[in-house]
Write a structure and sequence with these properties.
By secondary structure, this protein is an all-alpha fold. The chain contains eleven helices and no strands.
């Protein structure tokens, strides 16, 4: 009795592509897009393209990433690299948590007046922010908090368990390590998204 021919094992998928695919699926479901084929066709793509992205079979290019972000309402850096909040509205929630943690820590260290002076808030304004998670925290306040903490732009927009008043950080070396580990194509994608974010920031 002859044995049936054995199947060739599927080629290993790029783990970065798989993670991007997981975020694309998450974004699609958050946007209540239940049918990936219908979404692909609405974007003018072949029916299975988004499914290929979600399974890590392939990964979107720069233009495809921006199209997906526009239709799903998510941030390009989050979709591609998992950095920051998925949506701009989520960024406000992250900022609120970070600001409250910072205020609490300063209060416990008897350094609240010093902190408020540096970030340009009155005690009354600080209490309003502490009490109301929906009170917008503008970019200017987030940037002042980062400057006070000696952290780079965008640091305050990422979830962290406890922003430190004395943090000096060495995120520059972390970014260099991340950049060095990327393929040439992923480096181009990162630079393109960074330019997009930089241009948007300058336009504000």
């Amino acid at each position: 009795m002859t044995k049936p021919p054995s199947r060739k094992p599927s080629p290993a998928r790029n783990p970065h592509y798989v993670k991007i695919g997981q975020r694309i699926r998450q974004a699609r479901l958050m946007a209540k897009e239940s049918n990936s084929r219908a979404l692909s066709e609405r974007l003018g793509w072949s029916g299975g393209r988004i499914n290929n992205f979600e399974t890590g079979t392939s990964t979107p290019g720069i233009e495809e990433t921006l199209q997906l972000c526009a239709v799903l309402g998510v941030e390009p850096c989050w979709l591609t690299y998992g950095v920051g909040a998925p949506r701009a509205a989520d960024r406000q929630a992250v900022r609120h948590r970070n600001l409250v943690a910072l205020l609490d820590q300063a209060e416990q260290a008897a350094r609240l007046p010093e902190l408020l002076e540096h970030i340009g808030l009155s005690p009354q304004q600080a209490e309003k922010h502490r009490a109301n998670a929906f009170k917008p925290i503008p970019d200017s306040l987030a940037r002042r908090c980062e400057a006070h903490l000696k952290q780079p732009k965008g640091w305050f927009d990422r979830s962290r368990s406890r922003p430190s008043l004395d943090a000096t950080g060495d995120e520059e070396s972390e970014w260099f390590s991340l950049y060095a580990s990327l393929s040439a194509n992923d480096r181009r994608r990162l630079l393109a998204i960074a330019r997009l974010v930089f241009d948007e920031g300058n336009a504000l």
